[in-house]
Amino acid sequence: MLEGLVANATGALPLHAVRAEGLMAFLDGQASSAAAFLRATGFSARPGELALLPGPDGLAGAVIGLGADNVASFGAAPRALPAGSAWRLTAGPQQDSLATMGWALGAYRPRRHKSGGPAPALLEIPADGAEGVMMAEAICAARDLINAPAADLGPKELAEAVAMLGARHGAACEIIEGTPLDSGFPAVAAVGQGSPRAPRVAVLRWTGAADGPLIALCGKGVCFDTGGLDLKPPSSMLRMKKDMGGAAVVLAVAEMVMRRALPVRLLVLVGAVENAVSGTAMRPLDVLRTRKGLKVEVTNTDAEGRLVLADLLAYAAEQDPDAIIDCATLTGAARTALGPDLPALFSHDDALAARLVAAGQETGEQMWRLPLHAGYDGWLDSSMADLVNSATKPMAGAITAALFLRRFVPDSIPWAHLDLYAWNDATRPGRPEGGEAQCARAILAAIPEIPRRPTRDA
Fold first, then answer.
1. Which pLDDT belongs to residue 456?
2. Which of 59, 135, 173, 212 has the most other CB atoms within 10 Å of its CB?
């Protein structure tokens, strides 16, 4: 069971939810003493605002203010209400599933290496809360992966996480390593050749409907990124255990798709690798083979994530899917442009991009579409190979990274690339400091709207 949730809570106190515009009507329906107390304390039902209601035996209940985002509104409650207290939702304007999810996401704390600390308040799972529990479990599992120290989560362990996910849902999973990886995913192999922890590619296949659209999800799984021989400074390396955040996000999406039994077919690809420094690491100006056959000159060993994705995207395209979505903690340039909370979306398909943007608005996981500006494509030219992995101009880094990836996806296949942060720098309602499965719910919401490609139906 997720921290903060309980199936049945003896003596659970009522938790009322109210919106600002409904506050007067709510107060009119309460006992005069409770209404007077809330008026006297200035309760205004701001989103996430909490007020405890006194009773003859101490606490009689609590009231929480709702905003447009139920997840955020309930996210602060488990750590703001008295530790260990138990609560039940009363009938109100909240959506019980989203309230349950928000509560669980706010109660979450990484516990693998930390014991003790105050217990969160408990929420009795409401009758309509099962969907919220399911989504919270998938998101918290992704958070656990991102929060895991790199010493605990290397390429082997990340690939095993994909296999365990597949086993739970009857999906087929193949782990590619060794000689087959060297020949089939040469760019992934090159990125990982400097580490004693060998790289792997995990391939998961699941069928929810035999005639459903085939959705390919590709995740960058760099379990730790030193930058390679183009070594990162210590301040930039500090959070690089999260460089497998894209893989964690696609696993959260896959978990939710399979648990919902959506009528689609899934192909999930995770490139699990460590970018390390050693005598066998790839070097600047090395020329690498890729699965697609394009040769890439390495102008920056710290631009390794796009090399991993290049092979994954090429493999995904070979399966002739109806759409490809990749997720990656790819560039600092995207964070400079949009900050930590707003993932950058790139796509050469307007319909797919529109579906993802709309799903982001619907779920409160907004993203911002940036252009695949063709005028910068020449910045990837190389005199020694087909292209370089990193443009030498110190501008538009997120765009040129996306343009690099586009070289590995046919124009005929709808493709979207999400350059995300996968981390919360500080604790906020429903978003504790640490790893975050950014945009997982938005991608989940978009998937049922993705049609089969017309050429596939012919």
1. 57
2. 135
Q: In the chain, where are the structural domains located?
A: 5-128, 135-457
pLDDT in tens, 404-424: 999 999 999 999 999 999 999
Q: In angstroms, rounded to a whole number, what is the distance separating the alpha carbons of residues 184 and 119?
A: 48
Give pLDDT, residue 458: 42
Single pTM value for the model:
0.96
Q: Residue 83: CB partners within 8 Å, gap ≥ 6?
A: 118, 119, 120, 121
13-19 sheet: strands from edge to edge: 5-6, 122-124, 86-89, 13-19, 58-66, 50-55
Which residue is catalytic, options 306, 335, 355, 407?
A: 306
**CATH assignment of 5-128?**
3.40.220.10
Q: Give the span between the Cα atoms of 216 and 413, in whole angstroms.
A: 11
Left if phi > 0, otherwise alpha if psi is -120 to 50, otherwise beta: which for 293? left
- C-alpha 180/C-alpha 199 separation (Å) is 11
**Residues of the chain falling short of pLDDT 50:** 457-458
Report the alpha-carbon distance of residue 394 to residue 239 in Å, rounded. 23
**Would the CA dihedral through 4, 441, 421, 366 be positive or negative?**
negative
Contacts of 176 (CB under 8 A, 6+ apart): 184, 185, 200, 201, 202, 203
Pairing of strands 368-369, 344-347: parallel
Tokens for 105, please give them: 């996401």
306 catalytic residue (yes or no): yes
Half-sphere exposure in the Cβ direction for 11 (13 Å, CA) = 6
What would the pLDDT profile of 351-394 be if each residue is shown by its tens digit? 999 999 999 999 999 999 999 999 999 999 999 999 999 998 99
**pLDDT at site 254:** 98
301: Cα within 13 Å, side-chain hemisphere: 25
Active-site residue among 232, 260, 452, 453? 232
> How distant is the alpha carbon of residue 173 from its chain centre?
21
Amino acid at 201: V
Q: Say if domain 135-457 classifies as CATH 3.30.1330.10.
A: no
Neighbour-count burial of 413, counting CB atoms closer than 10 A to its CB (0-12 exposed, 13-18 middle, 19+ buried): buried
Encode burial over 134-158: b for 16+ CB neighbours within 10 A, e otherwise: bbbbbbbbbbbbbbbebeebbbbbb
